[in-house]
From TrEMBL:
Domain DAC, chain residue ranges per copy: 89-248
Coiled-coil stretches noted in the UniProt entry, renumbered to this chain: none
Gene that encodes the chain: dacA
Record HAMAP family: DacA
Gene Ontology molecular-function annotations: adenylate cyclase activity; ATP binding; diadenylate cyclase activity
Transmembrane segments: 12-35, 42-59, 71-88
Function in brief: Catalyzes the condensation of 2 ATP molecules into cyclic di-AMP (c-di-AMP), a second messenger used to regulate differing processes in different bacteria.
Name recorded for this polypeptide: Diadenylate cyclase
Region Disordered: start-end pairs: 276-300
Keywords: ATP-binding, Cell membrane, Membrane, Nucleotide-binding, Nucleotidyltransferase, Transferase, Transmembrane, Transmembrane helix
Compositional bias of kind Acidic residues: 291-300
Keyword Cell membrane in annotation: yes
BP GO terms, sorted: cAMP biosynthetic process
Amino acid sequence: MDLLFDIFRVDSGWQAFFTILDMTIVFIVIYRVLLLIKGTRALQMLFGLIFILIFFYISQEDYLNLATTHWLIDMFIANLIIIVVIIFQHDIRRALAQVGRAPLLGGARSYEETSVLEEVVKACVMLSSRKLGALIAIEREADLSHFTEEGIKLDAVVTKDVLFTLFLPEHQNPLHDGAVIIQKGRVSAAGCFLPLTINPRVEKTLGTRHRAGIGVTEDTDAAVAIVSEETGTISIAYEGELHRDLDANEMRSLLQKIYRAGTTAAPAGSLLERLKFGSQDRDTPAQPASDEAEKDEVSS
């Protein structure tokens, strides 16, 4: 209690300002940590860790006097940092990657990037109409070059015809089973292997293509377009979550929100936008496209 009084005791206006700033930073850090572990095994383990700490406190000599139990938990706490790193290495890697790629100021996206997203949408519509499976990872700030090392390097212009051709399941096309990676507005590689998600909450009915799409977005900020080979449905994976059963307009709208490519969108990558993206963007309905765009999708 004395510590709380010391924290809130201020002697000047500047001290009050820095106290509020300090509390705001702590709030943002806690909020981001909770967002990162929401829906993962880390949240369950966090509750277990809290229970252990409470039991450690009441097992002291002043309370239950469980000397052996207290000593055992004390040894556990002494090595807690190593244990946490081992158990939560995936979540820690993901958190550090998100912190490292979160600029305070946003930058405008180019027209070329908008054109790339539109070509991806058109290609997915074409592939969906023929029930051809596809997996397209679009790079943002986080580098995807290490995923291209085992693939086939291409450096091709992003067009719907190029993407469609890469996923044709012909015997002469060994690339259709892997992922296509788009970097810096170009098709950099095809036939790439992406890591599968290890999230136990992912539906067991999802196939390898969808699990790979989710997996790469757990470690990077990439957006992944997925077309189901069985049903032809289009999905977008982003930040470890899967947005399923999208039509062309919904897919276009979601990609524009992710990349902030729209003319009325807020600056991309701003800190406040990243904090509220999960609750705001996913609840906002897709904006309908123009009649010309709809005719273009049908003709494709």
